[in-house]
Amino acid sequence: MEQSVQLAAVISLAAAVFVGASTQRISGMGFALVASPFLVIVLGPHAGITLVNLLGACSSLLIFLQVFRQVEYKKVALLLVPAMLMTIPGAWVAARVDGPWLSIGIAVMVILALVSSFLIRNLPAAQGKPMAIGAGAISGFMSVTAGVSGPAIAGYAVASRWPQAKFAISVQLYFLVLSSTSLLAKGGLPHLHWTQWVACFGAMLVGILLGNYLAPKIPAKYSRAFVVLIAFGGAISLMAEGIIALLGH
C-alpha cells in the first residue's frame, strides 16, 4: 500500500512538472501557475512552493541558455530591479498576514491588473518606464507571498504590446533571477526521495523538449491568449484556495 502511494506521488509530481515546463517553453510563463497547485497537494505548502521555485529556476535557465542572444536585457532589468526590492516587504507581509486573506487579496490584485491592462494598452503611458516598474514591483511581491510572479508580468506584456515571441524569450531571465532570489530567501531545498528528484528533473527536460518542438508551430496570438488565460486561471485558483481555507476555519 505504501509503495503504491509513493508511486502515485512520483507520477503526480512528474505530470505536473512536465505540463508546467512545456507551458513555460511555449508561452514564456506558466510553470508555477500550472505546477504549484499539484506540488503543494503532494508535498505540502512549504516544500511544494520551494520546489516550484527550484524547478522554475532550472526550467528558465535551460530555456534561457538556448535563447540568451535574443533576450531584451534592458527591458528585463527594468522589471527585475523593483521586483527584487519588493521581495523584502513581501516576505514581511507573508509572515504576518493570514494565508487565506493574503491569497484572496493577491487574486483580486491580479484580476484587476489583467483587466486594466486591456483598458490602458492604447494609452502612451502603457509604453513607459513607470508601468514596467509597477509591474515588476507587484510581481516581486507576489513571488514571495504566493509563489506566483507571472500574472503581473503578463498584464504588463499585454498593456505595453510586448511582442509575444520576444516576451516569451526575454522573460526567462526574469523568472530565473526572481525564482533564485525567492529560493535563497527561503534558505534550503525540499527533502524529497531520490525517485521524486529523478522524476521531476526528467519530466522537466522532456517538457522543455516538447515545448521546443511546439513553440514555433503555434501562432503568437494563440500563445498570448494562453498566457492571459493562465494568469486568470492562477488568480481564480488562488482566490478559491483562500475562500475554501476561510470556510474551513
UniProtKB/TrEMBL annotation:
Signal peptide residues on this chain, from the entry's feature table: none
Major location (coarse): membrane
A single Gene Ontology CC term: plasma membrane
Stretches that traverse the bilayer: 39-64, 76-95, 101-120, 132-159, 197-214, 226-247
UniProt entry keywords in alphabetical sequence: Cell membrane, Membrane, Transmembrane, Transmembrane helix, Transport
Isomerase found in the keyword field: no
Pfam families listed in its UniProt record: TauE
Membrane protein topology class: Multi-pass membrane protein
Domain of life: Bacteria
Keyword Lyase in annotation: no
Subcellular location: Cell membrane
InterPro entries: TM_pro_TauE-like, TSUP
Entry's family note: Belongs to the 4-toluene sulfonate uptake permease (TSUP) (TC 2.A.102) family.
PANTHER family for the chain: MEMBRANE TRANSPORTER PROTEIN, TRANSMEMBRANE PROTEIN YFCA
Protein name as it appears in the record: Probable membrane transporter protein
Originating organism: Glutamicibacter halophytocola
Lineage: Bacteria, Bacillati, Actinomycetota, Actinomycetes, Micrococcales
